[in-house]
C-alpha cells in the first residue's frame, strides 16, 4: 500500500486524526494504534487515533512514508503520503 491519506478537522488539530479507511493495511493501523469506527449514517468505516497529525506523520515517516502534498478542504486538513517500495523499483516497465 504505497499511499496513505490522513485528515483532521482544523478545530481539532490536536486530535483525533483519521488515518485510514476500511481497506487500510491492518498492520499499519495497529502500529499507529488506530481504532476502526463507523460513524452514524455512514456505510463505511474509518480508522482514527487520538493523537495529533504531527505525531502520526512522525510515526509514518519511520515506516518510510513521505508527505507528497497537504491541503485544506473547507474545515479539514488533508495530507497525502507515499512510500517507495522496493518491489515497484525492481520490476521493469513493460512496453
From TrEMBL:
Alphabetized InterPro entries for the sequence: GFRP_sf (IPR036717), GTP_CycHdrlase_I_reg (IPR009112)
One family name in Pfam for this protein: GFRP
Keyword line: Cytoplasm, Membrane, Nucleus
One BP term from GO: negative regulation of biosynthetic process
Subcellular location(s) per record: Cytoplasm, Cytosol; Nucleus membrane
Highest taxon, organism lineage: Eukaryota
Record GO terms (molecular function): GTP cyclohydrolase binding
Gene Ontology cellular component list: cytosol; nuclear membrane
Family, similarity comment: Belongs to the GFRP family.
UniProt-recorded name of the protein: GTP cyclohydrolase 1 feedback regulatory protein
Organism of provenance: Ictalurus punctatus (Channel catfish)
